[in-house]
Please model this.
Amino acid sequence: MKCLELFLVFFKIGLFTFGGGYGMIPLVSQETVSRGWMDEAAIVRFIGVCESTPGPIAVNMATFVGSAQAGFWGALCATAGVVLPALIVMLMIAAVLKGFRENKWVRAAMSGIRPVVAGMIAATGLCVGLRCLVPGLGKTVAALDARQLVVMAALGVGALIWKKGLKRGFSPIALILFSAAVGAAVYGF
Model:
């Protein structure tokens, strides 16, 4: 029964999420917290884990929640639930691609959806950042830890030195490795 619930919840999330995994975070948060599957602090921590592991964040989140709730079969059902809506939509689009792309109503709908997706992603980033840094924001957020500020400052300085020294943007792989090293140094091995 839990597997069916996981499948249906993540199918709904996958069906009503536009903008990829980042647009999904508010829905995952709402659905998992309201069911008692995760708390806000766990979601914030997991977003960090998802960002540093390979694969789409949507699939990683569904797999994690499913695994935590019902083991292997829960992970499989939640992952299938989140992926299936996109697969169905892509198959339907492929079947009618030519007419679909030129339809004025579809273009108008997509033009309206784009700013909403951007706003959802920005709001998610802001909320996660505030929950990490502002003491007492949310029920489960601990007090501000000065080490968090040290890590953020070190990452900012490292990125600035990288960009000025090498005249290019910070590599995502280098950023992950540098972040892990700074976190290990600041929080201890």
User: Anything to note?
Assistant: The chain has two domains: 2-133, 146-187. Residues 57-95 form the longest helix (39 residues). The mean pLDDT is 79.
